[in-house]
Every structure is written in C-alpha cells, then in structure tokens.
C-alpha cells in the first residue's frame, strides 16, 4: 500500500496504465486505507511542486570570463580544451560563462562535482534533442540515438546495444585481424604518413566492413569532410549555414547517398543468410519491426554514422600511437604483451583478458584521459535547476566540459604527466566521476567496451609487426579542437622498420 501511495502521489500510474474513473477511484481508496502510506504521501506531495509554485532559489550570479583571460591562456593557443576549461574552472568556479564578440554568453560546467550532477540528475533537467536538431535535418532525420531522451532513448539504446557490445566484436576477431593486416600491408618501410589521415583510413577499413559490410575507403574523405562541416555549422555553430551548401559540399554530400545505396544492396535477406550479424542488420530490422522508433527517414543517418565513428576512433588511435612511440619503456611493455598473445598464432576473444593486456589497457585509459576526442557535451535546460549555487533557467543552453576534470590536480595529481599506474588498485582513478572520456549519464557512449577491445587489438598488432617513430622527431603535440579533438596535420608517423612478416 505504501508503494501504491507513493506512485500515485508522484502521478506515475497514468504513464503506465490507461486509467478510467473506476480505476482512479479504486487507487484512491487503497491510498486512504493505509495510515503510514497517507503520511508519506502527504510529505512527498508537499515537496513536489510545479516550477511556478516552487520558491526561487537564492542562487549566485554566474561569473563571466573576460575575453582577454581566454585569449592569453596557453592551453587555448594549443587548442587543448580540457586543460583550458580546467584552468577556467579553477579560477572562476565550476559554473562560468564565456562571452565572445557578437554572441550571447555561453554557460559552461566543469569539474568532478558537476560531472556527478550531470550523470545522476541531468536526465531530469537537461535534454539533448534541441542542439542536435539542425544536424539531424542535414540528413532528413529526426529522433536519432544522440538526440533522443526519455523512454524512446532507452528503448533504442537497449535495442542497439548488441551491435556495440564487446561480445559481438570478440566473435569477429578473426575478421578484425585480417582487416588490420590488410591495411598494414600497404605500409612501406622508410615512408612517412600524415598521422590523422592514416589512422582514420585504418579504422574505416575495419568499421565499414564490421558494421555495415561494405568498403567505403573511396568515400571516407568526402563523408568526413561533409560531416565535419555539418558539425561546425549546426553543433558548434562556428561557421555560417551557407558554407554547407557550396558546390564542393553538395558534391561531397553525394557520398552519403552512395554509401546508403551500397549498404542496402548487400543487406537483402538472401545475401545476409549465414553471415554474422552487424550494425546494419540491426538498424534495418528495427526499421521493419518498429518503424516509429527507427523510421526509414532516419536510415540515411544511422547507416552512414560509421563515417563519424571512423573519425573519432581514428583520432583516438593517432593519439595512442603518438603516446606509445613517445615513451620507449611503455612501448616495450606493450610490445611484450602483444608478442605473448600473437607469437603462437591469432588469439581468440577469451585471450584478451585484463591480466593478459594489463599494461595496454591501463595505457589506453591514460590516453583517453589525456587526449579525449569529445571534450564536452551540449544540453538544453528543460527544467530549471541550481548547480553549485548557480541557477540554470529553463531554455538556457549549457556546455558540459566533462573532460576538464582530467586536468584537475585534486582529481588526477600531476595531470600533465602520463602515468598508467593511476589505474592500479587502490587508486583506480578511472572509476570516479572525474574520468569522463565517454560522456555522462544516459548518453554515455554505448560502445565503450567494444571500443577498448578494438583499440587494444590495433595497438598490439602495430607494436607486434612494426616499429614507428614520430616525424619530426622533436614534434610537440598540438590540438585541433574543431569540431572534435584531434592532433594537427603536422604530426606524421614514420615507418622505421618491420619486425616480422605479415601472414598472407
């Protein structure tokens, strides 16, 4: 009875059942029968008030960062957004505003405490759909996974979770090994390659085959260029909309339709019979079984999203290779783990245990801390709230710099030092709210465990077969933060040697 009283007081029954007058009367009778339940319900009811009936909070004014403090920050000049936001939060607090010329002040949240709030309470006050709408419209879509909230987001996330699971990739390791070797076979000892484009192409070779079953290497440059422009126009809003409609961009946009057509051609029931299930199979099945959740209009986005996956994952790989070759001691330890796994033939999924990949796993965790690809998230406030003493009114937009805590001394001591021992017990720094390379709350990246396994395989196979060095040898890592964090084009990888032959 107590549970019924609470549920009824919080007005939840109407979301679960279609109630008629008789049912409502019966629920009311049950609620009145229990004295304890009635007392609890009355107490809860007094604390649940509409926003207009709730007394205003005694909130503090949000501090504003002067433009000159932003421009003079050394991390801003390097494009290092996490370290920049960490500095600003240290000086101005976890909630602050940045006012750029000709633009309204933008509100930022930064630090472990606001990460915790966003993770635990963000779903009650924030919504993702508003800021993402323009980007969706580019693809003619509405209600894709990154923009959904509430029940529909939960349903779609649950339906898509098998496609992004570690278990699915573990069952396809043989194919992954072949794809990695196929790409590495194109490397020439003595040659130097631009790091970002090399790693994006390497990852796209794997992602396009494993997730959608087609080769998109001839399309990836156009796909990436167009989607990054769309992100710059509609998400970050640093470029005007007409720049997405130039002749060059219209030509590149055709790559999206070409990729969609390729995926559809090879995903007929007859062609997929006996094949391992992939992401495209799951999306197309959902379109048939639940066309309201995954309408046909969303397929153009859902089936070509691997282009963005290749960008983010490729940039993660380029950061990780740079970190490995810059630290000979760690490089040798990763190589030792790789040799132990691969010297006696290809391992299966069960061989990639935490014990067998301990150094590589902790190394990748530290790469994700120091070089997060997605530095912040954007949300719209739909229910007013007070965060760290500052009111966020309805209708405002907030930028959650969840990776700023990666560079805060109180969360990660000596944050600019690369230290894989941070992740050893009892410290286990990656288990705190200060570690957030995958996002926060209900929109946390769905493929965390799959991504770590794929990164582990790539790093180990590179260390096992090749010796790589940075070019130039004295290169100091700098970042291009738009529209996502990545190394600048000046970083190159030199194929210094090949340790063993690649199997045919």
Structural features, described:
The chain is an alpha+beta fold and 504 residues long. It folds into 2 domains: 2-47, no CATH class; 129-498, Cytochrome p450 (Orthogonal Bundle). Helices cover 49% and strands 10% of the residues. The chain is built from 22 helices and 13 strands. It has helices spanning 2-9, 13-16, 21-33, 35-47, 67-71, 74-77, 81-92, 112-125, 129-138, 150-160, 166-170, 173-184, 195-212, 220-234, 247-265, 269-272, 279-289, 299-302, 306-325, 328-342, 358-370, 448-465; strands at residues 64-65, 95-98, 106-110, 126-127, 192-194, 377-381, 385-387, 390-392, 397-401, 466-471, 479-480, 486-487, 492-498. A 6-stranded mixed beta sheet has the order 1-2-3-9-6-4. Helix 12 (173-184) crosses helix 22 (448-465) and helix 20 (328-342) crosses helix 21 (358-370). The radius of gyration is 25 Å and the shape is globular. The termini are far apart.
Topology:
Blueprint lengths: L1 H8 L3 H4 L4 H13 L1 H13 L16 E2 L1 H5 L2 H4 L3 H12 L2 E4 L7 E5 L1 H14 E2 L1 H10 L11 H11 L5 H5 L2 H12 L7 E3 H18 L7 H15 L12 H19 L3 H4 L6 H11 L9 H4 L3 H20 L2 H15 L15 H13 L6 E5 L3 E3 L2 E3 L4 E5 L46 H18 E6 L7 E2 L5 E2 L4 E7 L6
Parallel strand pairs: 1-2, 3-9
Antiparallel strand pairs: 2-3, 4-6, 5-13, 6-9, 7-8, 10-13, 11-12
